[in-house]
Design goal:
Layout lengths: L2 H7 L6 E6 L3 H9 L6 E5 L1
Length: about 45
């Protein structure tokens, strides 16, 4: 079973810690560098 399969079947649910807009990418990078991330950081386009 692949990770894709696990996500599609609901056995694994990615946690999105924070979402940034495309023009906030520098802030998103700083957020990652601070190492306070508890999940995934997403960029909305």
């Amino acid at each position: 079973m692949t990770l894709k399969d696990l996500i599609e079947t609901g056995n694994v649910t990615p946690f999105i810690d924070q979402t940034f807009s495309l023009n906030e990418v520098p802030a998103a990078i700083r957020y990652l560098e601070d190492r306070n991330v508890k999940g995934k950081v997403a960029i909305s386009v």
